[in-house]
Amino acid sequence: MDSLACLPCLQPTVTRTTLRQFSRIALAMVVMTGRVTMLGLSRWAGPGGSYRTVQRFFATVIPWAVLFWVFFRHHVYRSEETYLLGGDEVVVTKAGKTTHGLDRFFASLYGKPVPGLAFFALSLVSIQRRRSFPIRVEQVVRSDAEKAASKAKAAAKKLPPSSVKRYPGRPKGSKNKAKTEATLPPELGRIKRMIDALLHLIAASLSLTYVVLDGHFGNHHALAMARQCHLHLISKLRADSALYWPYTGPYAGRGPRRKYGRKVQYDDLPVQYLQETTVEGHIQTRLYQTQLLHKEFAQPLNVVIIAKTNLRTQARAHVVLFSSDLDVHFVNPAPVHFGVDNV
């Protein structure tokens, strides 16, 4: 019942009837077991929460984005804290054929596309409290263009390597393409509209600098989308990403100046970029941070490489994180060294 006491702040946004129905349904949703359905909610809602009441509530047009923000501003927001904007997609399995937005979406829990519903959520993440607060949620309804792009990408992966002989050098008639003028795929265009609407809603109270997305968005299109929203992107690259050191050698004397140096070898990272070393049990973790180049990105990347080593078997694994903000330090700049003899 203490949670219901937080709902009166929503009174200026919705009617009293809607707020009363909301309180009944919210309480039923917290205590009920099994899958949440309108029939199940009506059975757990108690007096004032009949099946018709639940139907009327879900048939009412409610400004959920405004409700999320008003609730966050009244009960969660702290002016002394720093917030990041995080985004991710969740998939709920669903059978049938008539549910709005029903499609096949990739679910990480199953490791394959499954029939169901998908929702993309934006959350404000408090760095100090290390907590995430959902602030905007929309159902993913893929357009025909988005479905066609997904099918074309899947078909391209199945094509065998071309047997046509290709001569070395640049193909005749090809033109330069500016990497900064990237055309956003339909998926990123939808997410950009969500972010723009959220930033417009909270602009008077909260200023955001970073948007955090998972490895699915670790590409130059997502970085271009973040920069168009005037945000910096924090994401993850593939473990085998082709990163390059900036070239620092002499000028060759002709042609454009060389931009890319040697390729990064993840098993042999220079010690001067080591920021922190920790050992837990027989697992050694090393954090490296530096600026590197990727040929698909128009700008240098602020890269953090987390390398783990099993001191017993010497097996190694690493994760590559990056940001478009070149000035931020994600790890402690004072390295702490633990030798193998001290373990």
What would you note in describing this structure?
With 343 residues, this protein is of the alpha+beta class. It folds into 3 domains: 62 residues, no CATH class; 129 residues, Nucleotidyltransferase, domain 5 (2-Layer Sandwich), CATH 3.30.420; 93 residues, no CATH class. Helix content is 25%, strand content 27%. Strands 1, 2, 3, 4, 5, 6, 7, 8, 9, 10, 11 and 12 form a 12-stranded mixed beta sheet that branches. Strand 5, helix 7 and strand 6 form a beta-alpha-beta unit. It is globular. The C terminus is likely disordered.
SSE arrangement:
Elements (H helix, E strand, L loop, with lengths): L15 H16 L6 H8 L5 H9 L4 H12 L7 E11 L9 E5 L4 E15 L4 E9 L4 H15 L27 H17 L7 E3 L7 H9 L3 E6 L5 E4 L13 E4 L10 E7 L2 E12 L6 E10 L5 E8 L20
Parallel strand pairs: 1-5, 5-6
Antiparallel strand pairs: 1-3, 2-3, 3-4, 6-12, 7-8, 7-10, 9-10, 10-11, 11-12
Keywords, separated by commas or semicolons:
twelve-stranded mixed β-sheet; 7 helices; about 350 residues; globular; Nucleotidyltransferase, domain 5; disordered C terminus; alpha+beta
Envelope shape: globular
Using the 3D structure, state the CATH architecture of the largest domain.
2-Layer Sandwich
The span between the termini is 51 Å
Kindly identify the CATH topology of the largest domain. Answer: Nucleotidyltransferase, domain 5
Largest sheet, described in full? 12 strands, mixed
CATH class call of the largest domain: Alpha Beta
State the low-pLDDT regions, or none.
333-343
Strand fraction band? 25-35%
Q: Using DSSP, what is the number of strands?
A: 12
Q: Helix content range of the residues, please?
A: 25-40%
Q: What is the alpha-carbon Rg in Å?
A: 25 Å
Number of domains: 3
Number of helices: 7
If you average the pLDDT, what whole number results?
88
Helix-strand makeup class? alpha+beta
**H-E order:** HHHHEEEEHHEHEEEEEEE
